[in-house]
Amino acid sequence: MTAFMQKQTHPLNEQQKHLALIAAFAATGELPHLGAALENGLDCGLTISDCREVLVQLYAYAGFPRSLNALGILMKTVEARHLNGKSDREGSQPGPMPSPQEMLAAGTQNQIALVGSPVKGALFDFAPAADQYLKAHLFGDIFARDNLDWKSRELATVGALAALSGVEPQLKAHLGISINVGLSADQLQELVPYFKARGAEKAAQRLENELNTLTA
């Protein structure tokens, strides 16, 4: 877990930027753009596992329909590339996972590490089931899967939330989490022109707006 929190001292690499872009197009259901982003991401060295992990994780933010549609595009993309003679690396599978009985505690620990403090509040007192689902499932079942590091998972989350309207508070929260896991505001800012140049202008604008509130 400690390695997942180390500060990144170099600019975002192409693989990191592509993971955010893939998540953005998947979240909005822009499947032709998603297909192109997956092609380019695989070409720049992303593994099939990297892409699949991001698209599975996406369901927690954009719902199962968008996640399943995006996974279908990934499957077709990989099959077509194989027929065209391209050999994509499968990538890693997750290591040993906590047992179902241990998942709530593991997820709570992950959440505290990511956010920087225990997460409490009136909303979770009002809806304790949502609190348990976040801890046991999102931060447990998903973030305990160690075949994608936390920086990559947060970049994907930022990409997805930036692409969606009406979730600015969650986007701002995950920008803070991204900084907690070792990214900087300047590195996150690199996504703005990257998104704009690849057809994700609305996501770029929302991201820029929320980054400005962090640095104001």
Automatic annotation (TrEMBL):
Q: Which domain of life is it from?
A: Bacteria
Q: Which residues does the UniProt record annotate as the domain Carboxymuconolactone decarboxylase-like? A: 128-191
List the Pfam families.
CMD
- Designated name of the protein: Carboxymuconolactone decarboxylase
Origin species: Candidatus Pantoea multigeneris
